[in-house]
Specification:
Blueprint: H1 3-18, E1 31-37, E2 42-50, E3 56-64, H2 67-80, H3 85-100, H4 112-121, H5 131-145, E4 150-152
Parallel strand pairs: 1-4
Antiparallel strand pairs: 1-2, 2-3
Amino acid sequence: MSDDLRELYQELVLDHGRHPRNRRHPDSFNHEAFGKNPMCGDALVVYLMLDPQGVVTDCAFMGEGCAISMASASLMTEIVRGKTVDQANALFAAFQHLATGEGEVDESVLDEDDLDRLQALSGVRQFPIRVKCATLAWHTLHAAMQGEEMVSTE
């Protein structure tokens, strides 16, 4: 990992971890899922409001976890707002690839700015034990969009 990317990763985790965005229980939502990482105790609920066309009009989370888990959830809620379910699923796949190196990403359906923001969290790949912390919110988002009530990183 380049020094610039490492520094950006650290800044992003610190900023979003200390000041998470959209960490709240929204007044209204029509999809939710609970996610848990039993290895380190991270647990959160993702709340989504999807409009009739399948666009994410609101995304929020509540829960507790390490700085990486909270930073990832915070960034995720910012990025998926305004996206269709298909776009949000593509972002989920892209983040999985960035965090683990597994799978493939169809970058043609993704916004370059979103990929750049996600790239900052790709530094977690250097710390394999923390990958599940970073991906928990994304797995929980995916479960909520699929109508599943619960997901675990185990």
